[in-house]
UniProtKB/TrEMBL annotation:
Organism the protein comes from: Taphrina deformans (strain PYCC 5710 / ATCC 11124 / CBS 356.35 / IMI 108563 / JCM 9778 / NBRC 8474) (Peach leaf curl fungus)
UniProt cross-references to InterPro entries, sorted A to Z: AAA+_ATPase, AAA_16, ORC5, ORC5_C, ORC5_lid, P-loop_NTPase
The entry's keywords: ATP-binding, DNA replication, Nucleotide-binding, Nucleus
Top-level taxon of the source organism: Eukaryota
Keyword Transcription regulation (UniProt): no
Main localization of the protein described in the UniProt heading: nucleus
Localisation per UniProt entry: Nucleus
Similarity annotation: Belongs to the ORC5 family.
Record's GO cellular component terms: nuclear origin of replication recognition complex
The keyword Nucleotide-binding is assigned to this record: yes
Name by which UniProt lists this protein: Origin recognition complex subunit 5
Length: 456
């Protein structure tokens, strides 16, 4: 159990989550007892809550708070499993065993995984391997976290969870399994302790936004020497900003921070230009009214939070061939009109060009190139159809495509539109790489991109 001073530090970082923090801290406390045999003590026995359910809507701090609590003390030994990376049951089984052994799978050229762990094809084999792994000294008092476990639609999810609960209840070295999910009803909450994360109230969201510390806030107010005055301006701005954007942004605190940090320098512009002083609060609020009208980029942020792509950190050679062709197919899906698919990717003849007055009809896309409009959302079905059309017939890919899609998504090379974290629903995708990068990837697999990309 963390001491009060460490708990207080976490409370400052996660305001309005005091009760949830105390509940998790109490449930994760390890009780140790000495075994007595024949009047003499032997090895100690560690006892801790064998299973915990943490649930609540997205953007309520479940995973962030849990990780911060575990990382604040050396006594916590945990392994985190993001189930969104493992769409199939077998992928989850093997990935979990590898993480417990701290092994890094090697991705082969054809997209297969090559590692020194045994193939785990069934739930029984997974439970046996998991029990062997947890019996190792390195995994004593291990905390195993399954995050987003309801997002991947595993076969017999209830059976999987019941088996894990039974296994961890039988262990005697203080191990705990934690399920983190937004769907309360899918995790059998009646048979394990639960820690609910309720949605933030408007007052709590406003308070959290005011507590934001960002280097860009300090840079924007660099001409204001008094830090207390700068802090007061930021808090007043946040109150006004939050009231104006609550109906648009809703509960997404990260989106509030993103937009507020971008608008704050404009709010301070009259002060930096010596037009108004820091005391003219009413005039500052009036001058900021134009900032509170949602611009197109703000509306775009509400449907797709643009996180910085990690493509610059990923070398092309680290992606499997299947993943590269999937990324190319995603780019073509985002920047080519859907009606051109038959022309580019059909083995038959394409549609005849319609003519008007003896001249080719001017396509609307030709007048407004998609490259200028930005990437457009596409369905996974369309992307996979293009992938099958462009993949060389001589290349035999044996990797599961859903795993490759999950990999590209985890690297933020393709993004899911909307707030849903479920990779298998009917939502839209959007590519998150630029033309220069996709040209580099196309060259690495000897793919003639220009032949299949609509020109300006």
């Amino acid at each position: 159990m963390l001491p009060p001073n460490l708990l207080q530090q976490i409370e400052i970082e996660f305001p309005c989550r005091t009760q949830e923090l105390k509940s998790l801290n109490a449930l994760l406390h390890v009780h140790k007892f000495e075994q007595v045999s024949g009047g003499t003590s032997s090895d100690s026995v560690s006892v801790r809550t064998p299973s915990i359910l943490v649930y609540g809507p997205s953007q309520t701090g479940k995973t962030s708070l849990l990780k911060q609590l575990l990382e604040s003390s050396d006594e916590h030994n945990y392994t985190y499993i993001d189930c969104r990376k493992c769409i199939a049951n077998r992928a989850l089984y093997e990935y979990t065993i590898d993480e417990l052994h701290t092994r890094d799978p090697i991705v082969l050229e054809n997209g297969d995984f090559n590692h020194d762990s045994e193939s785990v094809e069934s739930l029984g084999a997974f439970l046996s391997g998991l029990q062997r792994s947890l019996s190792l000294p390195i995994n004593r008092e291990k905390i195993l976290i399954f995050d987003h476990i309801t997002s991947a639609h595993y076969d017999d999810l209830e059976g999987l969870i019941l088996s894990l609960l039974k296994l961890f209840t039988s262990l005697s070295q203080g191990q705990t399994v934690i399920f983190v999910t937004s769907r309360y009803e899918d995790i059998l909450p009646q048979i394990m302790p639960t820690v609910p994360f309720l949605p933030y109230s408007p007052d709590e969201l406003s308070l959290i936004l005011q507590e934001t510390t960002d280097v860009q806030v300090d840079i924007a107010g660099s001409l204001i020497k008094d830090s207390e005055e700068l802090r007061g301006l930021w808090e007043r701005f946040c109150k006004t900003f939050f009231s104006a954007f609550y109906d648009i942004v809703g509960q997404d605190i990260e989106l509030y921070r993103t937009i507020a940090v971008k608008l704050f320098p404009k709010y301070l512009q009259p002060i930096n230009d010596n037009i108004l002083s820091v005391k003219n609060h009413t005039q500052l609020a009036r001058s900021a009214q134009t900032l509170l009208v949602p611009e197109p980029w703000i509306l775009a942020e509400t449907s797709l939070v643009q996180t910085s792509s990690s493509v610059d950190k990923v070398r092309v050679e680290e992606l499997s061939t299947s993943a590269r062709f999937l990324l190319i197919a995603s780019f073509l899906s985002s920047y080519n009109p859907g009606k051109t698919d038959r022309t580019f990717f059909s083995r038959g003849k394409g549609e005849k060009t319609k003519r008007r007055g003896g001249k080719r009809a001017i396509d609307k896309v030709t007048r407004q190139p998609q490259k200028l409009l930005g990437p457009k959302g596409f369905s996974a079905e369309r992307m996979l159809s293009i992938f099958q059309a462009i993949i060389p017939t001589s290349f035999k890919h044996t990797a599961l495509l859903d795993q490759q899609i999950a990999t590209l998504h985890s690297l933020k090379l393709i993004l899911k539109q909307g707030a849903s974290g479920d990779l298998l629903d009917d939502g839209k995708w959007v590519v998150n790489v630029n033309l220069e990068t996709i040209i580099k990837i196309a060259r690495s697999v000897q793919f003639e991109l220009n032949r299949f990309l609509v020109s300006d």
